[in-house]
Fold:
Amino acid sequence: MKVLVLGSGGREHTLVWKLAQSSALTDLLALPGNPGMENLARRIRANPDDISEVVETAKREVVDLVVIGPENPLAAGLVDALSDAKIPAFGPSRAAAQIESSKAFAKDLMLSCNVPTADYEVFDDPRAAREYFGSCSLPKVIKADGLAAGKGVTVVNDRQEGLTILAELMEQERLGSAGRRVIIEECLEGPELSVMAITDGIEVVPLVAAQDYKSIREHGEGPNTGGMGSYSPVPFCDEPLMTQIESSVLRPVIDEMRRRGTPFRGVLYGGLMLTDAGPKVLEFNCRFGDPETQVVLPRLASDLLPLLLASAGVTDDFKRQAQAIRWRNEAAVCVILASNGYPGPYEKGHPIKGLEHVPEDVLVFHAGTEQANDGLVTAGGRVLGVTAVGDGLARASERAYDAVEGISFRGVQFRRDIAQL
Structure:
């Protein structure tokens, strides 16, 4: 089985690492990949956002499956283009990917199938948004409708701050077209939870839950990021809660998407808030979470590839593959090392030191690195994800932070409270 993984971040490195263990695999490609993948997969230097280039590469390489990591190619219709070329792909169609590419679409979808979420209003007109925000109760959450790399959500407690954010998004277009439409919704309270599920468009297989950390600094302070760390299992997420999430959130959405004629295949990610009234959806993503994947897949004891093939329709044994899933009892903790300035403008090109001293059983997933003449250097906002597995969260966290302390690059920043429960 020849598989191509699309993407270059920590999530894709984790997918490559896990798929490389499959007994069904004969050849593994990464487009464009990153330096951390080079001992696991053959890298192809191409643009992952150029749909025609990706399709032509997949045809030339005669791949059996394309596993799409990032959201942008999914939202742009890569799965549709691959399908037209008779190339199987793991991920949703462009129409189904709207569950992430448009928060207004996702809200309407949830409303139509009674999935619990925050009360909200949608605005295309800046003046109407300002008028509403000028008189609504606070706090509120302002969200850019489109894809914003985890940076389009702000909790607002100050009316003037909110009006400024609305102007930046809708009129100054700080996030480009992603912020021309906004959602203003009630601010939910409670612990957050990330639940990913693999689906073939009919059946739903929830993976183990994780919790991630969005703010750049400890205790939820500072601006939101794409994620500064994660851990699994989540102590307050038990089997009855997972059953409730599956029945009240995941299955209704998959059933509604199929009813609409846009069945969802791939990974459905639910970002949830556990309120006093029960779990409510904060957001949906149409792909594996990052950095949640970096703690969920290291806990997966069974082969991932057969489940992805069944989800994509390459095989017709999705139920059987779902029943074959096995999980390790150990906990996993991931700590993200980020560049100075992230999530704003950040520095690049700084040498990364100390990776040779990381214990072999601690995983270092590359997120923003590149190879220079004098070695590995930083090349992104989030640079590395250090994941350790241990007997319980305390031990996994201790091992992760021990490894982190041995890695350095100029301006490195990381949170020190990941899994510190």
Remarks:
- The chain has four domains: 2-91, 119-186, 189-323, 331-405.
- The mean pLDDT is 96.
